[in-house]
Specification:
- This protein is mainly α.
- The termini are far apart.
- Helix content is 90%, strand content 0%.
- It has a domain of 28 residues.
């Protein structure tokens, strides 16, 4: 019984971490789009971080 609860907790932690990573990448890319005059470079970064 205890093992099942631990596994669920670990899985939730991984999902949460993934969501936080995606959010951080989004804001990083958004900042690049605002600060870089070169849109091509920002789009390249976006594609790089999406993979």
């Amino acid at each position: 019984m205890r093992e099942g609860a631990d596994e669920r907790g670990i899985r939730k932690g991984i999902i949460l971490q993934s969501a936080l990573n995606l959010d951080a990448q989004f804001w990083f890319i958004y900042a690049d789009l605002k600060t870089l005059p070169d849109l091509g470079r920002a789009l390249h970064l976006t594609l790089t971080f999406s993979l």
